[in-house]
């Protein structure tokens, strides 16, 4: 929807979602750089972390489960 702001991070696909200890809901995404990031999907009303605004990228502090034997060779 909002294409005016384009970050340097491009999301390839969504992997899953996690409920953070503070109550916020974060989506786990894979980027085109093969990085796993978490983006706040829904901010909890009781969360005191100002960085947990909806749409914010937050550090994926939890270990992401690696995909099952997906070692395709990248060309190009
Ligand atoms: Zn939070």
Order of helices and strands: EEEE
Mean pLDDT: 80
Low-confidence stretches: none
Oligomer: single chain
Helix percent reads: under 10%
What do you see in this structure?
The protein is mainly beta and 76 residues long. The chain has a domain of 48 residues. The protein contains no helices and four strands. It has a four-stranded antiparallel sheet with strand order 1-2-3-4, with no helix packed on it. β1 and β2 form a beta hairpin. The radius of gyration is 14 Å and the shape is elongated. The structure holds zinc ion. The site of zinc ion has 7 residues, from loops. The site of zinc ion (ZN) has 7 residues, from loops.
Task: Characterize this entry briefly.
The chain has 76 residues and is mostly beta strands. The chain has strands spanning 11-19, 25-31, 36-42, 57-58. It has a domain at 11-58.
Write the SSE topology:
Layout: E1 11-19, E2 25-31, E3 36-42, E4 57-58
Antiparallel strand pairs: 1-2, 2-3, 3-4
Bound molecules: zinc ion.
Residues 20, 22, 24, 44, 47, 49, 52 line the site of zinc ion (ZN).
Give keywords.
mainly beta, 76 residues, binds zinc ion, four-stranded antiparallel β-sheet
């Amino acid at each position: 929807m909002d294409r005016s702001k384009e970050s340097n991070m491009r999301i390839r696909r969504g992997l899953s979602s996690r409920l953070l200890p503070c109550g916020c809901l974060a989506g786990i995404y894979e980027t085109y750089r093969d990085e796993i990031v978490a983006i706040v999907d829904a901010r909890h009303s009781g969360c005191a972390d100002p960085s947990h605004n909806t749409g914010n990228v937050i550090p994926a502090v939890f270990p992401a489960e690696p995909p099952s034997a997906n070692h395709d060779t990248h060309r190009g």
